[in-house]
Amino acid sequence: MEVQPLHDRVLVRRYSEDEKSKGGIIIPDSAKEKPAEGEIVAVGGGRISEDGKLRPLDVRRGDRVLFGKYSGTEIKIDGEELLMMREDDVLGIIKK
Amino acid sequence: MEVQPLHDRVLVRRYSEDEKSKGGIIIPDSAKEKPAEGEIVAVGGGRISEDGKLRPLDVRRGDRVLFGKYSGTEIKIDGEELLMMREDDVLGIIKK
Amino acid sequence: MEVQPLHDRVLVRRYSEDEKSKGGIIIPDSAKEKPAEGEIVAVGGGRISEDGKLRPLDVRRGDRVLFGKYSGTEIKIDGEELLMMREDDVLGIIKK
Amino acid sequence: MEVQPLHDRVLVRRYSEDEKSKGGIIIPDSAKEKPAEGEIVAVGGGRISEDGKLRPLDVRRGDRVLFGKYSGTEIKIDGEELLMMREDDVLGIIKK
Amino acid sequence: MEVQPLHDRVLVRRYSEDEKSKGGIIIPDSAKEKPAEGEIVAVGGGRISEDGKLRPLDVRRGDRVLFGKYSGTEIKIDGEELLMMREDDVLGIIKK
Amino acid sequence: MEVQPLHDRVLVRRYSEDEKSKGGIIIPDSAKEKPAEGEIVAVGGGRISEDGKLRPLDVRRGDRVLFGKYSGTEIKIDGEELLMMREDDVLGIIKK
Amino acid sequence: MEVQPLHDRVLVRRYSEDEKSKGGIIIPDSAKEKPAEGEIVAVGGGRISEDGKLRPLDVRRGDRVLFGKYSGTEIKIDGEELLMMREDDVLGIIKK
Question: C23 to chain D nearest CA, in Å?
Fold first, then answer.
């Protein structure tokens, strides 16, 4: 079973503590708004411009991303917890 | 009797507990803003761009969708409870 | 005597309880924002786009429509109570 | 002495009780936002589009109009009380 | 010494009681938002459209104008009190 | 050491009491929002239009300007206090 | 390990007290909103215009910048504290 996000929305699987990059990104506890880490599992068809055209999103399925900790709506698909958010809530893509 | 939604609005039939996907999407109780599940029964003619053109909607009649739990306005047609909402309130389309 | 709504406004005659569709649309009492039912008696010349062009409205005189219960401004013409509202306050068109 | 409204503004002379249409439009007292009746005495050069072009107004000098009761700014010209408002505050044009 | 207003701003000299039009425009005391009367002494280069072009202003140096009583910022140039405001705060131009 | 303002920002050196125009502009103490006087020391590359093009600013290095008293962010460069603000916070240019 | 900011976001390494420009920019303690100093370590692909096109950013990797003290979201990459912010939060570029 799959969910296809609409327009500029993306579906994200949040990383567990174990999956997080070793020696990599650590979000300090004291920060006011701390980003979280996860993987894009599905992306919408694109952002609708003011002239009605569709612009494809910049993140892709499989991208490892940083996003605002309180971004998105939680859903559970086939027993797995996922997050549906807008692409603009994604702060950046983690490169290997 | 039918209702044709205007512009970027869609008419949605919310699934009963029985109709919900078995082993499929479960909305956790603890989530702040929980999406609901339903079926598109009618779609508007399209979104009006800033240049005055009509852009057809991306959801179609028969699509199984996720939407924000408090989205839309309740109406009853021929004894059936339906929800009228904007397409942007639809989070994603559920694929089989 | 007639009133020609300006731009994207429409003039609506709200249905009395008797005129409402039998076996048809019933607005549940418990709903927070309940739509009402009526007939379009006059429509404005169109919506003005950001580029200054006029786009004709999608509802037509004689259309039976659903609209937000508290939408519009009440006026009385030749003894008849009518509602002046913007087309965007119309949720959908009722088909026979 | 005359005043030329700027851009999308119009100058309106509110009707006295005697001038109001007999058997015509009556604004119910109980309505929350009641429109008033008057005559357009001057119109601005037009609305400025986002692309910087001027779009002429739809109301004309001499038009009998309905407008929101609290719309506009009161001014007195040659002893006569007038109202300066934006064209968008005009709800509709009264036809004979 | 002169001040050149920027973009869509205009510089206005408010009329004293003596300079006001005799038998002309009187602003009623009871009005909530009362316009004031003055003369344009300088105008900005124009309004910047969303496409980045400059559209010249509609008021000109020497125009006698009506404006919102609390519009603008007071400045004193060579001992004379003036008001700097946006052209959109000007309600209309007084014709002789 | 120099700072290049970004986009539509400008860097301003506020005039001391001594540098102010003699017999020139005086800001009345009683005014609610009093403009201040200064000199432009650096300007950004331009304002970004909605279509993504760059429109050069209208103020230039060396211009003597009026600006809102509480506009901008204070910074100190090589011991000198400066103000970083957006060009739109500049009310006008003082001509000799 | 690297993070690629999305769209109009930039990644900034805040300068320590030692790295700050000697005899250079000092932010006064009494200022309400004090800018901070840092170096751009990564920039997003560009700002999306209203017509859906991508406009490259104006700051570049290696640029020394001033930014609002409370701008951005703190993240830690390979043990180093960085700030993710939008390019518009950058006030200006420091030139040598």
Answer: 31
Chain-chain contact of F3 with G34 (C-beta, under 8 angstroms): no
Q: Give me G75's structure tokens.
A: 């993240």
Rounded to whole angstroms, the Cα distance separating A4 from B74 reads: 25
Comparing CA positions, the residue from A59, A70, A3 lying closest to residue A36 is A70
What's the ipTM? 0.80
Give chain G's mean pLDDT: 84
Nearest by CB: A78 against B24, B47, B92: B24
Looking at the complex, does the CB of residue C61 fall below 8 Å from at least one CB of chain D?
no
Cβ pair F59:E6 closer than 8 A: yes
Query: B33 CB near a chain A CB, below 8 Å?
Result: yes
How far is Cα C38 from Cα C25, in angstroms, rounded to an integer? 12
Residue type, C6: L
Burial of E59 (C-beta count, 10 Å sphere; 0-12/13-18/19+): middle
Provide DSSP, A16-30: PTTTSPTTS-B--TT
Q: Is the dihedral of CA C68, C70, C71, C72 positive or negative?
A: positive
Domain boundaries along the sequence of chain D: 9-16+28-93
Residue of G nearest to F78 (CA): G24
| Rounded CA separation E58/G29 (Å) | 46
d(CA D18, CA D83): 19
Instruction: Give the count of Cβ contacts less than 8 A between chain C and D.
Output: 81
pTM as predicted: 0.82
Q: What value does the mean pLDDT of chain A take?
A: 84
Comparing B36 with A1, the larger pLDDT belongs to B36
State whether residue E88 sits within 8 Å of chain F by CB. Answer: no
Classify domain C9-16+28-93 at the CATH topology level: 10 Kd Chaperonin, Protein Cpn10; Chain O (2.30.33)
* pLDDT tens digits along G35-83: 789 999 999 999 988 878 889 999 999 999 999 888 899 888 888 889 9
Per-residue DSSP letters for G32-62?
SS-EEEEEEEEE-S-EEPTTS-EE--S--TT
Helices (H), F13-94: none
